Every structure is written in C-alpha cells, then in structure tokens.
DNA sequence: ACAATAGTGTCTCTAAGACAGTATACT
DNA sequence: AGTATACTGTCTTAGAGACACTATTGT
C-alpha cells in the first residue's frame, strides 16, 4: 500500500498520513556530536553553559530540503505512537530517553503545502546523562561515540495509555521526515542549544517552543527534573538541573526544603565523595504514585 | 479513495485512519433531550442536581454495535482537527461550544481490534447554557427542541495553532463512528450524567475520565468556568458552576476575593434583578491575554 | 419581620522567599 | 587557613481558608 504513484494533484484528497515528531532535551550534547548554533556549525568544545540541547535531523528531500527538522517520521502499522517517538529518538541520538510524553497533535490542513495531508503527533522527551553513551558531564574530551544502540528501557512506563509489544516485520512507508537507522555519528544529525535554534522545517520551531514551555512548566510543578540525572544524585545536582531548565537561580535552602517536602526523594544513606567541600547526601527517586494521566497536576489543597 | 474493498485480513497493514472524538460538557441536558443513566433510559424530568452532562451517540455498526460512544468520526480532507470536533458536536448536540481544546491523541495498535489501525485525537468542549437552544436553566418544561443548527461561532478562537477556512465539497470517508447530520432530536443521541456513565465503546470511557480530570483541573487554575454561562453573570452563578464541576462546596467570600484578584472579571455596573435577596453585580469576562498555548498554566511567582 | 444571598472584615495557618549562621569536606 | 558547598534556623510576607458580620432585596 504505497501512495507514491498517486498524482500530485490528487494528494490533498487522500486520507491524512500520521507522523510523529519528537523534541528530545538533554543537558549536554554527547561528546563528539556535531553542534549547530544559529547556522554556524562547529564541533563540540568547551561551552558547559547551562542550557538545554536538542538533536535535529537535516531534511534530505523536499519540502524544506536541507533545513533542520525534529527527528520523526510516519508510524508503522505495528507501532504505538510512543514507539514511533522512541524509534526516532534512538535513530537521532543513539539512546533511549528517561521520560517521554505526548505534547500535542498538529493537524492543520495546510501544514505540508501541496503534499498529502499530514497529522503530526508531537512528543517530548528527556535524555539523561547516563543515557547519552558515556559522555563526560562537564568536559570536552572527544570520547568514544557510544556504540550499540543500547536497549535500556528496563521497566520504564510510557505515557500512552495502552502499550503493546511490537509484532512482525512491517512494510516501510515513504511519507514525512525520514528516520535514519544506520546508527553511528551522522552528519545529518546535529545538536543545537534550545536557546539558539535555527529556523526549523515545517512548524517545528513552534513545536519546540511548546515543548520547552511544557518542560519548564512540569519542572516547576511536577517531579521530572531528576530524569536528566542518573539513578542516584545529590540535591545540589538536582537544583542545578532546575536552574538550567528554568533559566534562573534557585535558593539552595528553600529548594532543599520544598523538594524534600514532596516526599519523593529517598535518602540512600550514602554520600557523595571527591568533592572539594562537605559531602552531600545521595538520594534516589521514589517512582510510586505516578499520576494516572501524564499531564495530571498535583491535587491542590481542598477545603473539608 | 475508499478502503471498503480491501480484504479484512489486509486492513491492519493500512496506514492508520485519523478520527476525532469529543467529550462535550454541559451543565444541564437540553430540555426534551433523551437522557440515559447507567442503561436505564427515561425522559428528562426534574433532577436539577449539580452534575455535568455529556452527549453520547449510539453505535450503528460493528464493532460495539448498539453501545454508546462519544460523538466523532473521521476527519475530512479539508478540515482541521478542531473543525472535525466542532462538526461532531454540532451533529450530536445541535449547538456550537463556547470552548474547545485538544485532549490527547490515542494511537495504540490494538484499539480497533481487527479493523484498520485508528488514531483518535480526542477533544473536550464546554457547552454554555446559551448555546443549548433555549433550554430553561432550572426547569423541566418540555420546551421546543431548538431548531436550526445555530451558527454562533462569532469571533471565537479555537486552540489549533493554525486554522484555515474550509474549502470545497469533500468526499465522505466510511471509517469510525458515524456522524449523524440530520439535525433534530435523534433517538441515537442521548445525554448522560458524567457521574453515571454506562460502559462506552472503544476506550471512550477512559477518554471521558481524562476529559473530566482536565476540566476540573482547568477550573481550578484557569478561567474557563464562565464559558458554561452567558456573556454576563454574577459571581454567585460562577461559583455555582465551580461547585458543580469540582463536586464540592466553595466558600462564597473567599471565592469572590480570589476570582476578582485574577483581574479577568469586568464589572458591567448593572445588577441582577428579580432575585428574592440583595441584587448581585453583573460581570463580563475579559478575553484579553489568552494563553499562547491551550494548556499553558499561569506563571508562578519567580524570585528576582 | 424573615429568608436568602451579596458583599466586607479579619483571624489563623501554611508555605514561599530571603538570608544569616553552622557543618564538613578538599587544597 | 581558606574556600566551597551542605545543611539548619528563622524572619517576613502573601495567600488560602474559616467564619463573623453588615447590606439589600423580595415575600
């Protein structure tokens, strides 16, 4: 079932195609990755500035040929929407995100100009430092470009209400942004600071803005920031993540109290070592009581 | 382009179809409407209990033949997703909602069993008392079943980032829940209390739960409740809406202060008349400063 | 007069923010 | 000793909730 032989003038009358686009956030680009900043391209060096990074994919066909776009592509017949999002992230960033959430469905009739009507379901994701191969958090060492698409989705829960195991071999569709599955550091994949994105293809700039707003919003009222970190972390590290995401300084004392008052952090009893100051307690995150729906908000105080 | 002649065994391999389902909330069912409560069916009478009501459509084909389902159906080639939601609401409730917002995209692979893969974008909507024909707010008068699909979408903004004017006559697709466009009180349309819904077709019960959670959530942190009312209302009426939606009593004094502190209510200078007590001020709602994205939340106080 | 709701005043309590002060590691 | 961060204490302030009290209509 391929629409390639349908004449261009009939394409707008076809049933809409379904594609997924993903905004994947990381605290740092993986070491050795191609970095693009507002059109100027250079290799990753220095710059441990506290911004967020997003992997982009270069368009290899019209429309928007050569422009940067969000990773994504059409859903396969045997994939959930979340699975498609995961696959596109793995293809672009060579890792599996620690968090994935649906963002919005874009279905305007004019989104892809003359091409077939396209409905895009946007997702956003968080890539932990652990997930990104073996990147050194603060450094610029041109390390190994993490091999073997690590299948590390152990026991994680995606937001899609029902998730099915994949079935047999599917046929490939040909619509929308292509997903590169070759692995390996790809010249068509670049990492870009969320603060200085170039103009993206389609409406992907708007999607990215929306995703950034959602990430900031959830960082303020929900407990998601820890997913940028490993399984064990200090409150200071967590605070640094909040500051990077929110873009402003947070009082250490008040942050500590508020984050502990939520009751989601579990003291491991161990301490950080090797720091040039008083060692901090190490905490784990308690995954109990996940919200029923991905964008549910905490219950406000309600009068009796 | 019709998939009807594709054999059933090939259907799961087709590209997914795109449909829309809508959860439309109203404070009261329209007078004269068919009311269904947990399978027991009877005409609307008395019962001005403070619950929310939702229009449902009976399935007229397999799967789930005969079960109640959310209004909806496939998107036409020339419609935005929001337009499809509007059309399905107009067909089921014979009115245009005062608010419409995208809820979630459901795309699990097994949602429609053996049928073609179906991606459903769910919307939720608020139907104002004004919108529902000429229903009497508190009463059970079997009044006129409001005629003529009133086109009253004057100057309202929908959430879809880009909205286009519809084009020419589209062909009809044949997948998913049928939309009845005959108008008139339909035996296949029933109103049901959100508290006592029967088991719905597909995953529509879960969608409804999600929509209800979102409505309650937005009622608490955003200013949406006024859309259940007319253009002018008293704070007491607005409080009654909050109580109906949230399901618990709200202190009148504190509610007044909080709602006024938001700065979105404009005193018209006029007063309510005919009430057996001190007349209340009448307010309008200020539509300025609509959020950039439909589910944006108010900015919390941020330290300098 | 009475009932009923509109609207105001004010007390309490919680939580956020600001910031001073103490604790404990490494150099 | 000096520095840097961890952690604790506490003052101030804003806002939520509870609730008493006054205002103004119709019956």
TrEMBL record, chains A, B:
<feature type="region of interest" description="Disordered">
    <location>
        <begin position="135"/>
        <end position="169"/>
    </location>
</feature>
<feature type="compositionally biased region" description="Basic and acidic residues">
    <location>
        <begin position="154"/>
        <end position="169"/>
    </location>
</feature>
<dbReference type="InterPro" id="IPR054105">
    <property type="entry name" value="WHD_NrtR"/>
</dbReference>
<dbReference type="Pfam" id="PF21906">
    <property type="entry name" value="WHD_NrtR"/>
</dbReference>
<feature type="region of interest" description="Disordered">
    <location>
        <begin position="269"/>
        <end position="304"/>
    </location>
</feature>
<protein>
    <submittedName>
        <fullName>NUDIX domain-containing protein</fullName>
    </submittedName>
</protein>
<dbReference type="InterPro" id="IPR015797">
    <property type="entry name" value="NUDIX_hydrolase-like_dom_sf"/>
</dbReference>
<dbReference type="InterPro" id="IPR036390">
    <property type="entry name" value="WH_DNA-bd_sf"/>
</dbReference>
<feature type="domain" description="NrtR DNA-binding winged helix">
    <location>
        <begin position="228"/>
        <end position="285"/>
    </location>
</feature>
<dbReference type="InterPro" id="IPR036388">
    <property type="entry name" value="WH-like_DNA-bd_sf"/>
</dbReference>
């Amino acid at each position: 079932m391929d629409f390639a032989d349908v004449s261009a003038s009939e394409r707008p009358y076809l049933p809409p195609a379904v594609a997924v686009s993903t905004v994947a956030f990381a605290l740092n680009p993986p070491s050795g990755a191609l970095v693009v900043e507002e059109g100027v391209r250079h290799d990753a060096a220095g710059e441990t500035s506290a911004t967020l990074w997003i992997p982009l994919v270069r368009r290899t066909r019209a429309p928007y040929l050569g422009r940067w776009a969000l990773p994504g592509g059409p859903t396969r017949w045997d994939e959930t929407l979340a699975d498609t999002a995961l696959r596109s992230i793995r293809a672009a960033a060579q890792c599996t995100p620690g968090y994935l959430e649906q963002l919005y469905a874009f279905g305007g009739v004019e989104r892809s100009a003359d091409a077939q009507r396209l409905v895009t379901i946007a997702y956003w994701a968080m890539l932990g430092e652990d997930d990104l191969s073996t990147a050194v958090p603060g450094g610029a060492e041109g390390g190994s470009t993490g091999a073997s698409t690590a299948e590390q989705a152990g026991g994680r829960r995606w937001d899609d209400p029902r998730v099915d195991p994949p079935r047999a071999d599917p046929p490939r569709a040909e619509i929308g942004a292509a997903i590169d599955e070759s692995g390996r550091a790809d010249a068509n994949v670049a990492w870009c600071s969320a603060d200085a994105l170039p103009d993206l293809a389609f409406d992907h700039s708007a999607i990215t803005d929306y995703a950034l707003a959602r990430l900031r919003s959830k960082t303020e009222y929900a407990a998601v920031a820890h997913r940028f970190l490993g399984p064990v972390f200090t409150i200071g590290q967590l605070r640094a993540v909040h500051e990077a995401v929110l873009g402003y300084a947070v009082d250490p004392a008040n942050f500590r109290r508020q984050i502990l008052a939520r009751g989601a952090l579990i003291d491991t009893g161990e301490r950080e070592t090797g720091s040039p100051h008083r060692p901090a307690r190490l905490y784990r995150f308690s995954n109990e009581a996940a919200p029923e729906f991905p964008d549910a908000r905490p219950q406000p105080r309600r009068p009796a």
